[in-house]
Amino acid sequence: MTPKTGRERIAEMDQITLRMGNVVKLAASEEASRALEAKGFVRDGAPGSRSGTDRDTGTAEAANLKKELAEAREKLKEAEKKNEALQQELAGTGEQLEAAVKKNTAASGKGK
């Protein structure tokens, strides 16, 4: 690759950079940039445009959120199992209580 001349560097600075996904286009004029925008390209620095670093950060954040979601799902499964066990224990305790009340009611009725 040959080094760029001063004029080539100046010409690049005057160009408008547009992005769509991983595709980057340079437009030399406002008309050309509008045509690319009509096709879905977004100017660098425009609201809604993201640089490569922003995309990488977003990808890392998404990975972290997916990991947190998986951990939360595991905790939810464990909590549901504990809840089910407690519900069964409570149902058994309720039945025992009802049986004790009936027994006491029957015993107090005989004592009269």
What keyword list fits this structure?
112 residues; three-stranded antiparallel sheet; mainly alpha
Question: How many strand segments?
Answer: 3
Q: Which term fits the overall shape?
A: rod-shaped
Summed up, the helix count is: 3
For the terminal residues, how far apart are their CA atoms? 110 Å
Helix content: 55-70%
Along the chain, the helix and strand elements come as HEEHEH
Radius of gyration: 35 Å
Order of strands across the biggest sheet?
Answer: 2-1-3
Mean pLDDT, to the nearest integer, reads 82
SS-based structural class? mainly alpha
| Major beta sheet summary | 3 strands, antiparallel
| pLDDT < 50 stretches | none
The portion of residues forming beta strands comes to 5-15%
Quaternary assembly: single chain
